[in-house]
Amino acid sequence: MRRIILLAMPISFALVGSTILATAQDKPTPAPITQGAANIKRTPVQKFDVPGTNLETVIAIADIIPNVAIGAHTHPGIESAYLLEGDIVVKIAGQPDRPVKPGESWQVPVGVVHDGTTGAKGAKVIVTYVVEKGKPLATPAK
Prior knowledge:
- This protein is of the alpha+beta class.
- Helix content is 15%, strand content 47%.
- It has a single domain (2-133), classed as Jelly Rolls (Sandwich), CATH 2.60.120.
- The strands form two sheets. Strands 1, 2, 4, 5, 6 and 7 form a six-stranded antiparallel beta sheet that branches. It has a two-stranded antiparallel sheet with strand order 3-8.
- Strand 4 and strand 5 form a beta hairpin.
- The protein is built from two helices and eight strands; from the N terminus they run H-H-E-E-E-E-E-E-E-E.
């Protein structure tokens, strides 16, 4: 778990600075995130406000079952992801499909429809969302 948090820290520092991150680490871990497709489980690691905005940063571990299409969806903010285990083909609207291997990362712009398909091992991803407060973390695409 400590390794996962250490991987997320550079992203968090770049987004809001070390003072906010240090304060957020004193808070208890939020409850599991339930929005989104049935094929993905998002477990929050950390959640904190972006000062002076209506945004919050959510760092989570996403476990995606094997051999599945996640389902086209959007987020009310930027998604940055890093593949820890398994494999996934990331499908972002307007871009070519991108096979991702462990150690690689990607980013999805605000509100852009995207999907992903996993291979035989599924996928374990650390994800950082910078999203509007009060909105569902993920919404199925129409």
